[in-house]
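Dear colleague,

Following up on yesterday's call, I've attached the two folding results inline so they're easy to grep. Please treat them as preliminary; we haven't cross-checked anything against experimental data yet. The first protein's sequence and structure tokens come first.
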Amino acid sequence: HVQLVESGGGSVQAGGSLKLSCAASGFTFSNNIISWIRQHPGKELEWVANIYADYGATHYADSVKGRFTISRDNAQNTVSLQMDSLKSEDTALYYCSTVTLFEYWGQGTQVTVS
């Protein structure tokens, strides 16, 4: 079955960096778009970035463009989100997600920027 497991969250001061990872299993990882989505405390979900399967094309929300970098390792079935120059408004629960026949989400990893 499809599994997505996020890791790497934590607490960091503004201006710092964190690297999130999403470990995937149960589907043909190299064929799938993988997305990062976040949920700020008490607010709606916000799409952050995604990375395509072919050629690894990447896309970012304006709020993170130039500060976050998404990448994938098809040999390891992982997607990473390097987050630099973090701001307090980046504080959120971060999820990775993919769609096969259904949409799948991980359990999330908390990022707190103070």
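Below is the second protein, in the same order (sequence, then structure):
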Amino acid sequence: QVQVVESGGGLVQTGGSLRLSCAASGSIFSMNTMSWSRQAPGKEREFVAILTRDGSTYYLGSVQGRFTISRDSARNTGHLQMNNVKPEDAAVYYCNVELNNRQYWGQGTQVTVSS
């Protein structure tokens, strides 16, 4: 059974950095598009970043230049490097990965930002 688990969330100060990880396990034959989304309390889930099959990256405008998405297909892992974190970045962050031509979501990891 394929599983996706996020980690790396926690408390970070405004202006600080945090690195989120997304680990896939199970019988994985292919790992392609990976994306991160987030959901803050009382708000809808929003797209944050995506890394496509061909290596193209796209970001939410407000995180462009501060966040970096990456993928290590050999290790079935991915990361979201968050720099210069702002209070509005506080949310539960979810990883979505295309594995074996199917989409899988993780359970989310909480990011809390202190001022």
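For the second protein, one point worth flagging: The first strand starts at residue 3 and ends at 7.

Best wishes,
A.L.
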